[in-house]
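Hi there,

I know you've been waiting on this one. I reran it after we fixed the sequence typo, so this is the corrected version. Both the input and the resulting structure follow.
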Amino acid sequence: MADLLPSTPDTSAVEDAEPRVIGLDSEDADDLIGALSSGTARELLTALHEDPATPSKLADRVDTSLQNTQYHLEKLEDADVIEVIDTAYSAKGREMKVYAPANQPLVVFAGGEEKSTGLKAALTRLLGAFALLAGLSVLVQALAGDLGALFGGDAGVGRPAPGPGEAPVAGNANNSTVETTTAATDAATSAADAALNAVPPGVAFFLGGALVLAAGFAYWYTTSA
């Protein structure tokens, strides 16, 4: 049993968290603002968004006492901002709660209830679209890698490099100009290839798709306001 301690918590529930939109004129906003009025509470919530943790680990990460950490965690839990997702055990066998954000993301919205509901639905669709985009980006990167291997990567046939014994023919003034022009062209081609290869296809696909999604969301938000 001692070899199994400390245990590793199961944090898979964080992936199932849904967005939450709180209107400033709602009752939930009072609890939320009260829970987040302290700077320590905000630091704890930020730390939990980075990685779920036990109170003792959170106390170390935000540099505060365990008692102060537990106090703010209780207030955040009462406001439904965080929740217990699992139980872990320390090296001494002590049972510890593992906290995580109850919602991702958490949005405080100034507007009517109808707009708040519409914003939550839009955020849910947007996050789903980003998840789909990430999966497609991985597929694009995999296909690009397979195609590169299929065609042998840099399989293009270029101009053969001059041998060590080759030199411009004496008396021909065009040789120097041709060699200089060819060298400049090769340098420009190499620079262009390096620029294209600097960004993997999957990353380029994701960035382009993210830009389109962000622009679409911004357009929806401005037109529906």
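Quick highlight: Residues 2-109 form a domain with the Arc Repressor Mutant, subunit A fold (CATH 1.10.10.10).

Best,
R. S.
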